[in-house]
Amino acid sequence: MAPSTSAQWLLIFVTLLWGSTFLTLQTSLQWADPLVVVCLRFCLATLILLALLRGRIRQISLYEWKAGFCVGLCIFGVYTLQTIGLGSIASSTSAFLTDLYIGFVPLLQWLFLKQTPSMSVVITTFMAFCGMGFFANPFAMDFSGQIGEWVTVLSALICAVEILTVSHFAPGCRPLYLSFTQMVSVAVLAILALCLHEPVRPTQWTLGLGACVTALAAIVAFVQFGIGWALKYISAIRATLIYALEPVFAGIIGWCAGERLGLNEWIGAALIIAAVLLSAFRPKKARSKRS
Q: What does pTM read for this prediction?
């Protein structure tokens, strides 16, 4: 199997895991402050990757530390703002607003990298965005008094920056080392933030919090490793469209658990899947080494 094909399948699995974290994250907030959850999550993720490195920290290059800090800064912003937002909005609303990065990625490439998106990218991105709209009714959102919604939109913008940053650094980094430096950076930033921020409520050290944080830490460690490896072989735009499958997987998981999927959800799923498939069938002329 070609590396680019393997990368796409890995990102599909990563997206499946990603879609499962919103409800877990929201559940953890009943026992701890958002920043405490972020700190615990990334400290544990750092320990997980440290165990996988098996004493090879000295082999990490200066470039990988630099890359990890830049990406980690973005990750800290994304997860902290997303977690804060989940304190006042529903997980489904958070998932939809977070997925705005699908539109932000090509927009930022156009504005700052001077990379004009092709018509196929515009069409497939629009299809994916419309598909997400069917999963969560954006017209029902009221931004006038919901700080959580605005905070989550900002996290989506930073998420787009993160994707482009990983895409820039990934070709010159080893995935495991890049993932470790990212987790260390986020953990240190979270600890420093906690020193300056007084939690709004005391932490309740329960088995439920431990289970949630452990699951979130394991998933984020694997997700960042998967993204770092995959973006060595495929473009940021291609990866972003695959990420659009997140609400589809979340809906399927809910359906398997007994939730009912209405006509809107099925239409949204069809649009997103069609966008991902169409993006895979571009003319040979438009393909590049990192397709």
A: 0.83
